[in-house]
Amino acid sequence: MTEELQPASPPGDDPSLLIVDDDRAFLQRLARAMEKRGFATETAASVSEAIAKVESAPPAFAVVDMRLEDGNGLDVIEHIRNRRPESRAVILTGYGNIATAVTAVKLGAIDYLSKPADADDVYAALTQTTKEKAEPPENPMSADRVRWEHIQRIYELCDRNVSETARRLNMHRRTLQRILAKRAPR
After folding, report:
1. Who has greater pLDDT, 130 or 172?
2. What is the distance between the alpha carbons of residues 99 and 24, in angstroms, rounded to a whole number?
3. In angstroms, rounded to a whole number, what is the distance separating the alpha carbons of residues 90 and 6?
4. Of 44, 63, 85, 167, which residue is most buried, by most CB within 10 angstroms?
5. Can you give the residue range of the structural domain that contains 113?
6. Residue limits of the Response regulatory domain (predicted)?
7. How far is CA 1 from CA 37, 52, 66, 121, 125, in A?
């Protein structure tokens, strides 16, 4: 994680930031880096801890890991959005795919970052204006990656049911299991 500082201007009237991640070392590094950028940070290492903190004081900003030990970070995003609709939340994940990115945005996340994301990326995602357009990728997805993303989307739509996904994709179930067990192609 880079420690290059952005201008230390506060992110607004309410600089409260909740960071939710079960990787404690990353959680502490990101919290310190965001405090240096003007945020008042709170941390949580689980869905239940995060929801309890949202109940007591809904944050203006949030950075939430997608997969946590006790559940899905999207539940935290949804809870934040219900308690404070104007909050700005970003999802972090090491298991990115288009289906979960779309779901995150539908639930109220303003951005979706793949790990490893550094503090500068997180700061930029939290403070960007909604009028800014995303830059087109320098390296677009390969055909293998597009295929993998499509399979992941259908798998999520079938509630992670391998047999149903294989039927819909007209694919043998064991072939699908081998594809799902592999890492995403670049």
Report:
1. 172
2. 27
3. 18
4. 63
5. 16-127
6. 16-130
7. 14, 28, 19, 10, 15
